[in-house]
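Hey, I was hoping to borrow your eyes for a little while. I've been staring at a protein lately and its backbone has me curious. You're getting the sequence in one-letter code plus the fold written as tokens. Would you mind checking whether the tokens look sensible for this chain? Here's the protein in full, and shout if anything looks odd to you:
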Amino acid sequence: MKQKSKICCGVDFGTSNSAIAVVHDGDTVLVPLEGAHTTIPSAIFYPSGGTSPLYGRAAIAAYTVHEPGRLMRSLKSILGSDLIVEKTAVGGRYVSFEEILVGFVRHLKARAESHIGCSIDQVIMGRPVHFVDGNDVVDTRAENKLCDIARSAGFKSVAFQFEPIAAALSFEHTLAREELVFIADIGGGTADFSILRVGPTRWSNADRAGDILANEGIRVGGTNLDMRLSLAAVMPHLGSEAQTVKGLDLPRWPFVDLATWHRIHTIASTKNLHTLGQILSDCAEPEKFARYIEVIRQQSGHLLAGSVEQAKIELSARDAVAINLRETVPGVAAEATRGQFEGAVAHELERLGEIVRATLGAAGQHGSAITTLFLTGGTSAVPAVRQVLEKHLPRAETIEGDLFNSVAFGLALDAQRRFARRKAA
């Protein structure tokens, strides 16, 4: 591959979806990663035969038609956990979770290089404000691990930018006047908030530190909302509210794990399967927990989670929806209402409100001083989430950016400026 000059890019490696934008011939462009799609689900499917893994929509499609193998999703969540150093069985061999993440980032890099016809050496990686809530040591370790992953994927120069700051740079690119903007980047795994002064006269400034008034974040995102909806509307059909023959509650962990994207693949271990068999034999409503066992046996956990996620999305426009369980729990009809959903996620909504207030406090600003609320990340489309934000920012104009591409585009803009400055120096 011909190397014309050092090409830089921005990579938004997301919990649910990922994107990459490159600076090429003076233009910042989003890379089509699957056909015309500029986003790709953060999913990997390892065929049982040990052939090359599939990524994104192709991975989900292989899993959906029940090809033998293993699907893995929401892998970004592993960065802040001890799982990152462990190994797991995929494609007939044991590999580390770090190696799995390297493969995904390398795939993004290869797609970008194929698109522009040049190798890419320099990258700004997006990162949440906090990988882990309340633990700076683990947070630093997670960033260092992501740096190692990017280098192992082939990038020579790696730097980081907070994802909401990147979204702000993308928004600033469109402005004709100065704004005091509250950036809300709420994706699959985290909610990240920033308050910045932005505008066309500030863009060319080399040092923007004084424009950034506050950064706060929390590990609450779309996958948390999916889990709560699943526990409220689906898991009771699988025995979550059943009791043992002695009148005790069943263990909660099987249902929480099945409702949590990045935990689904851990359920089918030999030890867990033995424990699940014991739970079934001790369950006062065995027909319900037998449905749970069948979902695990059929390796349909991700398909079930996908049905819940789709119901959550549909509830943004409707008051009640049917959850499609035809392929995962035949004969069971589950429904979810918006009121039920909002009740199930009340704790998450409260935590989001607390972080909004903390962000305003850190910036020394009252909510009424904010002129613009800029939304990005798929979870910012949830009506109850928007209501929390708008309640605290009563005078702000709400602007919805590109929910899935704003961060990647802003990261590439930041890469262009930062790496050009290094070269000039």
Notes: Residues 105 and 150 are 7 Å apart (CA to CA). The two ends are 28 Å apart (CA to CA). The longest strand covers residues 17-24.
